[in-house]
Design goal:
Low-confidence stretches: none
Shape: globular
Strand order of the largest sheet: 1-2-3-5-7-10
Radius of gyration: 19 Å
Helix content: 40-55%
Mean pLDDT: 95
Order of helices and strands: EEHEEHHHEEHEEHHEHEHHHH
Number of helices: 12
CATH superfamily of the largest domain: 2-enoyl-CoA Hydratase, Chain A, domain 1
Number of domains: 2
CATH topology of the largest domain: 2-enoyl-CoA Hydratase, Chain A, domain 1
Number of strands: 10
CATH architecture of the largest domain: Alpha-Beta Complex
Length: 254
């Protein structure tokens, strides 16, 4: 792979976009590599958490040079939506470690993750409106669900960037870390998550996702059903046994 770097450290997958000369802008080739990497991560059962990051700039949007002369059909074929949906659908927890610019498609990529950590110097925003388009890879949908319709409209309609502090205040990111501590903070969180029961994490993520478009009655029914099924797992037996024995559990994902 030319445009991304994949590492695995102690059950933690790390995927970094590696186009420093283009501020890690997302072109079609890069997104295709991300797609291939996600397919591999789905098959690798040893990976319990995924961190998506980049050095200096998370991703400064889509590659404008590549898109400039598209017609509607070409734009549709260029869309990152299918790949971003694959990231959002991963059963394992995902963390975006955001440094530098996360604009347009870069912010949309970050929004596919379960948890977002930004460096103090990170800058985020949807700049598409200034280019005569709008977010088209989940921005209008995921941002609205995350921070509410009013704030999402403000970000998208104005096309203005926000600082890491502002992003944390409106709920766009979960936490802010010093630039030099960003990856350490992400890795510490990923390590904590990697020690949790994988099947329980998967079920919790599934229940949260299911509740988004269901009535509260249907969502609660589904939650109860998948909660009950967890009592057939070895991890449930180990977790409760470890609690009673006053020791740390050793979850196997079974």
């Amino acid at each position: 792979m030319e445009n991304i770097i994949i590492e695995i450290v102690d059950n933690i997958g790390i995927m970094k976009i590696n186009r420093p000369d283009a501020y890690n802008a997302l072109n079609k080739a890069t997104v295709e590599e991300i797609d291939d990497a996600i397919e591999g991560i789905k098959q690798n059962l040893s990976i319990r958490v995924l961190i998506i990051a980049s050095d200096n700039n998370f991703a400064a949007g889509a590659d404008i040079k590549e898109m400039q002369n598209f017609n509607p059909e070409e734009a549709g074929n260029f869309s990152f939506t299918n790949t971003f949906n694959k990231i959002a659908a991963l059963s394992i927890p995902t963390i975006a470690a955001i440094d530098g610019y996360a604009l347009g498609g870069g912010l949309e990529l970050a929004l596919t993750c379960d948890i977002r950590i930004a460096s103090e110097t990170a800058v985020m925003g949807f700049s598409e409106i200034n280019l005569g388009i709008m977010p088209g890879a989940g921005g209008t949908v995921r941002a609205t669900k995350l921070i509410g319709e009013s704030k999402a409209k403000e970000l998208i309609f104005l096309g203005q960037n926000v600082s890491a502090e502002q992003a944390e205040r409106i709920g766009l990111v979960n936490m802010v870390a010093a630039k030099e501590n960003l990856m350490d903070t992400a890795m510490k969180l990923a390590k904590k998550l990697s020690l949790k029961a994988p099947i329980a994490l998967k079920s919790a993520k599934e229940s949260i996702k299911n509740s988004a478009d269901k009535s509260i009655e249907d969502a609660l029914k589904y939650e109860s059903e998948i909660w009950s099924k967890l009592f057939s797992s070895q991890d449930q037996k180990e977790g409760m046994k470890a609690f009673l024995e006053k020791r740390k559990p050793d979850f196997k994902g079974q």
